[in-house]
Automatic annotation (TrEMBL):
It comes from Streptomyces fradiae ATCC 10745 = DSM 40063. This is Nucleotide sugar dehydrogenase. Keywords: NAD, Oxidoreductase. One of its GO terms (molecular function) is UDP-N-acetylglucosamine 6-dehydrogenase activity. It comes from the Bacteria.
């Protein structure tokens, strides 16, 4: 089969490589000339995706993967088109469709009868049917459902382990009509392989959710669930702090029966997905008060961590405070919506002098994110923001002048911090 993947980013490129690995002829379309050049040379444009370098080279050497900036021409040669161009939302959750609209107009220009178009970018519910279908029809002169098939199939993989996740998670598909859904299922069954799993209600594989809307909601719902769950954990943690209860022990106890899955409280909920998609959901469903209050509870946590620091340390005016971890969570080199930013702002608002360090970032990289790198300055307090594995080994002797440590992720080993006031969230 000839397949076009529109956008060769952190998700699109591994997908294109996966399809080529299954023996299909893939054309990747991206507006970035540099990306296209690198892909055609068999060189990965970004680091960090497990196995991508080897699989990409193999696909390009076998002549199964090429890249172009001409989306319309690539679409015209393809039986299936997979779209993973990013969509952005602002603080109110309002989507900016700019990049996706441009991609869709280009796809429409090359669209021919019989093609399947699958959108994988996370979208507000209703977008596939009410925005993409008319836009594709207008640009192509074809009719969605009659002349071409159209589905939404959310991408649920995590960057860094895309190939493994593609096998691990069921592929969800929903069409704008029954025939589109069936075509989407047949397509993904041809291009993906699945691990056997005994913990699912249906065999692992491609699951047809019946409509594009159900499939759009599935992605927003699973990410919103995570945010709401963490929001609840954070609520319990703050209550536990007031009442001298160790929330970690409580959560472990609750989760010892099969119907409780309380997540972990912490200083921040960051990343591209979990803080963002609840806002997208709220754009669809502004009355969703549970979602809104959980989002607010999570967004308030960096300030709360600084409150805990001030309560233990005293006036923070002029205090040099080290924020440990710029990444939004441990083990990733990614600062999108990281708690480091609101934590630094909250410290500055109280007159403290924040420095930042992170084992995954150089001083130059931290500075490029607008953060002040810690270059050995004396610090008298610290806040752990990201649960990097390295911090498990960190000890008071590494930061000899620190009097108070707020461990926002319960990552540090209390035995290594004797003599320092160590405060945890919900402790
Ligand atoms: N990154 C993740 O962890 C992740 C996980 C699951 C799902 N997703 C979904 O995948 C989407 C894409 O994320 P990503 O991380 O791959 O993005 P990315 O930023 O890594 O890459 C985006 C690519 O899109 C290209 N592009 C922009 N406009 C284009 C256009 N009009 N036509 C063709 N290409 C265009 C850019 O040049 C870039 O190469 C997200 O919006 C999200 O919905 C991402
Ligand atoms: C495990 C999980 O669902 N990962 C999803 C998540 O990855 P993502 O990489 O965003 O990571 P997580 O969902 O694990 O974490 C998001 C944020 O929440 C914080 N946090 C997490 C768990 C917790 O119990 N308490 C807590 O505070 C983390 O520190 C981090 O700041 O978004 C991606 C994009 O949609 C999805 O593809 C991934 O499947």
């Amino acid at each position: 089969m000839n397949i076009c993947v529109v956008a060769l980013g952190k998700i699109g490129l591994p997908l294109a490589v996966q399809f080529a690995d299954k023996g299909h002829k893939v054309i990747g379309a991206d507006v970035n000339e540099k990306v296209v050049e690198l892909v055609n040379a068999g060189t990965e444009p970004f680091p960090g995706e497990h196995d991508l370098d080897v699989k990409l080279k193999k696909a390009v050497d076998a002549g199964l993967l090429t890249a172009t900036t001409d989306t319309a021409a690539a679409v015209a040669q393809s039986e299936a088109v997979v779209v993973v161009v990013p969509l952005f939302v602002d603080a109110e959750g309002t989507p900016d469709f700019g990049w996706m609209d441009a991609a869709t107009r280009a796809i429409a220009q090359g669209l021919k009868p019989g093609t399947l178009v699958s959108y994988e970018t996370t979208l507000p519910v209703g977008t596939t049917r009410t925005r993409w279908a008319p836009m594709l029809e207008e640009g192509s002169g074809l009719t969605a459902g009659e002349d071409f098939h159209l589905v939404f199939s959310p991408e649920r993989v995590l960057t860094g382990r895309v190939f493994a996740d593609l096998r691990r998670y069921p592929k969800l598909v929903g069409g704008i009509d029954e025939a589109s859904g069936a075509r989407g299922v047949a397509f993904y069954e041809q291009v993906l392989d699945f691990d056997e799993r005994t913990d699912l209600p249906r065999p692992n594989g491609v699951w047809d959710l019946g409509t594009a809307e159900a499939s759009e909601l599935a992605k927003l719902a699973e990410t919103t669930y995570r945010d709401v769950n963490i929001g609840l954990a954070n609520q319990f943690a703050r209550f536990a702090d007031k009442n001298d209860i160790d929330v970690k022990k409580v959560i472990e106890a609750c989760n010892s029966q099969p119907y409780s899955h309380i997540h972990q409280p912490g200083i921040a909920v960051g990343g591209h997905c979990i803080p963002i998609y609840p806002r997208m959901y709220l754009w669809n469903d502004p009355e969703a008060t549970v979602v809104r209050s959980a989002r607010e509870a999570n967004a308030a946590m960096p300030e709360y961590a600084v409150d805990l620091l001030a309560a233990a340390y005293g006036d923070l005016k002029g205090a040099a405070v080290l924020v440990l971890g710029a990444a939004y969570r441990g083990g990733v080199k990614e600062t999108a919506f990281s708690g480091v930013f609101p934590t630094v702002e909250a410290l500055k608002a109280r007159g403290a002098v924040p420095y930042v360090s992170d084992p995954m970032y150089t001083d130059e990289e931290l500075a490029a994110h607008g953060l002040t790198p810690h270059q050995g300055e004396t610090v008298t307090a610290a806040i752990l923001q990201a649960d990097h594995a390295e911090y498990r080994e960190l000890a008071a002797s590494d930061l000899p002048d620190v009097k108070v440590l707020v461990d926002g992720r319960r990552t540090t080993d209390p035995a290594r911090w004797e003599g320092v006031r160590r405060v945890v969230i919900g402790g």
